[in-house]
């Protein structure tokens, strides 16, 4: 890892100022960024830690919406998101306990790893990503592998998720990395069902609209049995072929619906 | 260089570190607390697990500067005040929860983290909680037994696999 300067501001405003300098990079829990820097795949001149900003910590619930501070750890979400059981379970299954004690929701969403868990929950709930300058709808936020709508130096300060009537996340783990080989988040609302898939596509997290329509008419595991996912856009690597991942999307969706009840 | 101070195993310490200095390197190289091991250096294996402000973290994937002002606990601080092994360490010895011992500091720290939040875990809880701690010797079975024994539970109930 190349050396860098380190600052840990206590407010969002100070963090924004610190990030304005050249080659500055925001640091959440560092569970992806630090390994990336060790491999010299990233070499920022300055790291701006967001973990000391009290305003970006914690989980609260108001009017059917769960609000999560951008620097809230996975462990905290798992413990505090009791009003949204599907999300608490997702957070409690990311990585391992020590990783969950450091990794943050804002860091995960900003990184937009195609195999990360949180993007599926954000997209399936139609979350609002709140930054220091604006609010971004989840449908506009994710823009492909490791690409988001965030501008340089923009910080995710909070995430607002409408709490579904029923929800569940099913992850088929890649056994070595424990990232999602395929993960599916199903969220049922009075207005309809949203299904978001992570781990599978070369385009990153995506909504499976055919399943959403079918589940909107009949919220049961059988509703997706006649559907299929086109394998063309799926990721193919030594862990699974395109067809394998496409098939898993359907299986995981069906399991998530069954578990959501 | 960044000046930092923290409490490690109850004692105040301070130092000057580069921004890139990892917590594990500060512990091992500056404080000479070499009980915390670096196994993989990629946050997979958990041999470097320590507690920061009461929760388990992988010290190879946390900057030392992030622990400025924190309360850090390492394997060196786990023994009883009279120097004897604590309950968890003794259980690992009694149940052969180690062979080469390289992963053991991390296993003990992860176990302490588990038992603090879940004093009587079942076998599935233990295996889930030790998901991020890799042992290449034991096959885990005796580690799970040791953790259950450390929690005061009957380990004979754990079926051999």
Written description of the protein model:
The complex is a heterodimer of chains A (261) and B (161). Chain A is an alpha+beta fold. Chain A has 3 domains: 5-49, Uridine Diphospho-n-acetylenolpyruvylglucosamine Reductase, domain 2 (2-Layer Sandwich), CATH 3.30.43; 54-162, 2-Layer Sandwich (Uridine Diphospho-n-acetylenolpyruvylglucosamine Reductase, domain 3), CATH 3.30.465; 166-260, CO dehydrogenase flavoprotein, C-terminal domain (Enolase-like, domain 1), CATH 3.30.390. Chain A has helices at 12-19, 33-38, 74-80, 85-91, 97-100, 105-111, 118-124, 138-141, 209-217, 242-260; strands at residues 5-7, 24-27, 46-49, 59-62, 65-69, 128-131, 135-137, 156-162, 166-173, 180-189, 192-198, 206-207. In chain A, helix 3 packs antiparallel against helix 4. Chain A is globular. In chain B, a hairpin with a 2-residue loop joins strand 3 (49-52) and strand 4. Chain B is 29% helix and 16% strand. Chain B folds into 2 domains: 2-77, Beta-grasp domain (Ubiquitin-like (UB roll), Roll), CATH 3.10.20; 87-153, Orthogonal Bundle (DNA polymerase, domain 1), CATH 1.10.150. Chain B has 5 helices and 5 strands; from the N terminus they run E-E-H-E-E-E-H-H-H-H. Chain B has 161 residues and is α+β, with helices and mostly antiparallel strands. The termini of chain B are far apart. Chains A and B meet through helix 2 and helix 5 of A and strand 4 and helix 3 of B.
